[in-house]
Amino acid sequence: MKIFRGRNFITLEDYSKQEIDFILEVSGYLKMKYILGEETPLLKDKTLFMIFFEQSTRTRNSLEAGMTQLGGHAHDLTPNKMQLSHGESAKDTAVVLSRMGEGIACRNCFYGTGNKYLNELAKHASIPVISMQDDVYHPLQAIADLLTIREYFGQNLKGLKVAITWAYATSHAKPLSVPQSQILLFPRYGMDVVVAHPEEFPLQRDVVDRAKRYAEEGGGSLSFVGDMREAVKDADIIIPKNWGGFAYFDTWEDSEEQWEMMKNNLEKHKDWRCDTDMLKLAKRHVKIMHALPADRGNEVTDEVIDGERSIVYDEAENRLHTGKAILALTMGGK
Ligand code: CP
Q1: Nearest residue CA, atom 3 of ligand 1?
Q2: Which of 161, 176, 136, 197 shows the shortest CA–CA distance to 12?
Q3: Which atom of ligand 1 sits closest to the CA of residue 291?
């Protein structure tokens, strides 16, 4: 196991299974301390700079509260508060912030550029760069999901069927990064992941290829179907989630024409909604997960997300505990 201090956290692909297990152990330790009301000043007087190009509820507040609970402080930054808005380079931003604090966290989900921006920050920063989500990955969400799954299903996840299904939403075209990080991670733990999506809403081919390789190595599996019902049949976990049709295009140009095509494609699939009929196809003990925010009534009905099968609030709470573990390990520790 490599030392954690100073390492970037942009994709869980950079972390071995042994290291991910350790992150989960630390998360459990911090969760226990939090519940017991015991202090954990592991990052006393340390500063995290959080740069959000997009809105956030869970990521922003889990990391800001997390830094407070660890004895440090987080700066809640957006481009309009920074010289980024006047074109300051990622290099200058990263070098300057590296001289003032101990960690840089960034969310940049612009398709085709977000992950590149984070890697550019990481190239020039001398402190860890932590992804708060980009266009390709959302590792903070995936690790919280894994902790939540373990809490409900135990340590041995071999053979657990997880249905990750695209779902209709009108709120916004969500990034691909949540399902992509999930398919890259879950099969490493022996889970059988089935992804369902309409043909116009694929995941990135390069990510899928790597995820299939990890599935083989980890003893899990990854398969794709074109029907939500088929995916949820006999599932232990259902994750109904919208994502944009960015990867449908050979090259994403962010043009009005492409957005219009995506909107037209979306309207063809209004019936992709997780409702109680879907739940009946799954195992009796099925759990409903969702990274949130959910487009209630579209992605998933109120009855399902508020029902007894839903564990979405436990999943959201675990963003705090796993986020703190990542901060404590990469910005502090030995
Ligand atoms: N799941 C998640 O990342 O939520 P936020 O967009 O609210 O941070």
Answers
A1: 59
A2: 136
A3: 1
